[in-house]
# Entry
Amino acid sequence: MGLLKYQNYLDTHLGDLSKKTIVITGANSGIGFYAARSLVYKGARVVMACRSQVRAEEARKAIIEMIPNADIDILIFDQASFSSIEKFASELANKYSSIDGFVFNAGIFHPKKDAMTKDGYPLTMGTNYLGTFYLFELLRPYFEQMEHISVVCVGSLANRRYKYQNVESYFISKKLTLYRQYALSKKFMMANHCFFMRQDGVNVHYSVMHPGVASTNIVSGSSNSFPRWFSRVARSFMSTFMNHPEKAALGIVLLAAQEKTHGQYLVPRGLFGISGYPICKKVPQRLSRNAQVIHELTVDFFHKLRRL
# Structure
C-alpha cells in the first residue's frame, strides 16, 4: 500500500517538484489540505495561506507526521477582510521573490444566515468572490513578475445554477438564499478567471477546475449553520457515495504543478461531473460568455470603494 491513497496516480502524472513553491489558500482542511499533502509528497514547498494559525499548525503537523521531510510554510490571512487581504498580498510578495503556483481555493458554503464580512458584505459572497477577486487583483502584478506561474481557480459544480442580471446587486444583497450566494459567488469567480484564460502568450498560466462533490467538511465545518443531525447524515452520505477529498484534489495538483496549463478546465470525468479522476473539458459558455462583463463590473465596484 502506498504512502498516500492516490500515490500511484501522482507518481504516474507528476515528476519531482522539489524546485517548486506553491501557495494554496484554505489549505488547512478539505481538498486544500489534500492538495497540499500531495504536492509536498512530490517534493514541492507549499505555503499554506489560512485564516487560523492553530488550524494551520495542526494541518502542517498532520502532513509532517506522514511525510517527515515536508517543506511547509504558513501565512495567515482572512479572506473576509480587505485589510487582511492587503497585508497578506504584501507579505507574500516580500517573503517570496518567486513562486511557481498559486491556488485560489479558500471559501465557505453555509454560514449563519445574516453573517457579514469585516467590511459589511454578505459573508458567502464577500468571502468567496469579493475577497478572492480583491486578492487576485492585488497579486496580478506579482504574478506577472514570474518567469512562468500556474494560477488555479477552484470553483464549484454549483456554477451551473442560477441566472443573473445586475451583477453588482448580488455583491450587497442580503435577500439571496445562502445556496444562491454560494452558487453565484463561485460562478462569478470562475468567470473572472476565464476572462484571463483567453489571453495568449502570457507567462501567467490561468486555469480553472471544480472538484465535483467531495466528502469534505463543507456541511459540517465550524463555520456552517446546518443542524447537527443534518450535518451527520449528509457527511455519512457524502463519505459513502461521493469523491474522497484526496481524489477531488487531484485536479488542483495537476494544474498547480504542471506547466503550460493555460486555458485548461478540469472536472471529474464521472457522470454529470460529480466524481472521478480529473479530465480536461471545454470551458462552458455560461462561464465564458459574460466573463469580460463580470470582470469589468467587479473592477468598477472596487474602484468605487477606492480599493483598486
